[in-house]
Design brief:
With 342 residues, the chain is of the alpha+beta class. The protein has a domain of 205 residues: BirA Bifunctional Protein, domain 2 (2-Layer Sandwich), CATH 3.30.930.10. 35% of the residues lie in helices and 22% in strands. The chain contains ten helices and 13 strands. The strands form three sheets. The protein has an eight-stranded mixed β-sheet, with helices on both faces. A three-stranded antiparallel β-sheet has the order 2-6-3, with no helix packed on it. A hairpin with a 2-residue loop joins strand 11 and strand 12. Helix 2 packs parallel to helix 9 and helix 4 packs across helix 7. The longest helix is centred in the first third of the chain and has 20 residues. The chain starts with 10 loop residues before the first helix and ends in a 16-residue tail after the last helix.
């Protein structure tokens, strides 16, 4: 206990982090991408059933005066309390800026996810998120490769790998991720020493894909290379557009280096009605699983109704990126103070 005031990372890692942030800002400045800030506290939050949220109570000014009619005594209003949410991502607020005409934007900031702590997780973490107006997903992937390649210039990676989700899933499991067969998935789970998957996943295709991918596919991705997996099954992507050629998949990409997931990107869904339906579907899942259910972000829906420009965007966890750059074994090793010493 005598030393628990000390940082969890070495002082040298603070310098490496500062250099990383400076390089990222220079990268976007050279491309005239605007740096923005959005609130960490918001009146709403995402509906993703896989995420848990932090909430806090906001008390409006106590003892506010209700202005009376002429000749009457002032009336004191009791304090009002609202529940606010710490954001799991700046995505919704940034899309509202895009709809307002901001042009291409990026943000480096904190994000919060409850229940996430471990070698690669801290409930408070640093995220880089950016959106490129007029970019297809392929163009965004080109830019991701440029940024990551520049950040790893002193630790050269092999040539960037691009592979479809369907191809890589079949390669490592023999299962077709676009066609759900409960019998085949259960058999694979038993063969792979994952019998708990049957009870955990039930008949939920998306859960099966997440579990099998994380255990049997992800560890093999990006050996000393940036691996970009694209074309995720439609059941897994709430915020990405359906692919025009194949509506069974979405225009989504995830990034991996040495089996570590670094980021998640989309060709962004701009259809307000479709987004509203997807939120409803996720809220139904949350209710079915007896998870907290919150109101949809009506301001995001309104922004989409106003018109989101054609764009692609991606979010990258900078703490994990710093882990790989520094050869650190745990996220605690790159944080000034992890949750255990915060």
């Amino acid at each position: 206990m005598l030393n628990d005031w000390r940082p969890t990372c070495a002082i040298e890692l603070l310098q490496v982090r500062a250099q990383l942030l400076a390089k990222i800002r220079q990268f976007f400045a050279e491309r005239s991408v605007l740096e923005v800030e959005t609130p960490l506290l918001s009146h709403s939050v995402g509906t993703d059933p896989q995420l848990d949220f932090f909430t806090t109570d906001y008390c409006l000014s106590p003892g506010m005066v209700c202005m009376p009619q002429t000749g009457q005594e002032p009336v004191w209003r009791p304090p009002q309390q609202q529940t606010l949410f710490l954001q799991t991502s700046p995505e919704f607020a940034m899309k509202r800026l895009l709809a307002a005409g901001s042009g291409s934007i990026y943000q480096i900031g904190k994000a919060f996810r409850s229940g996430e702590s471990g070698r690669f997780h801290n409930p408070e973490f640093t995220m880089l998120e950016w959106y490129r107006v007029g970019f297809s997903l392929s163009q965004l992937m080109d830019e991701i490769a440029e940024l990551i390649g520049g950040l790893f210039s002193d630790l050269p990676l092999q040539e960037t790998q691009r592979v479809s989700y369907q191809d890589v899933f079949i390669s490592f499991t023999g299962l077709n991720p676009l066609v759900f067969s409960y019998r085949d998935y259960c058999a694979f789970a038993r063969e792979s020493q994952l019998p708990e998957a049957v009870d955990i996943c039930g008949h939920d295709h998306a859960l099966w894909l997440d579990l099998i991918f994380s255990h049997n596919v992800q560890p093999h991705l990006g050996e000393n290379a940036l691996c970009m997996v694209y074309g995720y099954p439609a059941c897994q992507s709430s915020l990405a557009r359906l692919n025009e050629q194949n509506p069974q998949i979405t225009d989504r990409v995830e990034l991996f280096i040495n089996g570590v997931e670094l980021g998640n990107g989309y060709y962004e869904l701009a259809d307000a009605e479709e987004q509203d339906r997807r939120f409803d579907k996720e809220l139904a899942v949350r209710q079915q699983k007896k998870l907290p259910v919150f109101a949809k972000d009506r301001r995001l829906i309104a922004a989409l109704q106003e018109g989101l420009p054609e764009c692609s965007g991606v979010a990258i966890g900078l703490d994990r990126l710093l882990m790989l750059l520094s050869g650190s074994a745990s996220i605690d090793d790159v944080l000034s103070f992890s949750i255990h010493r915060a």
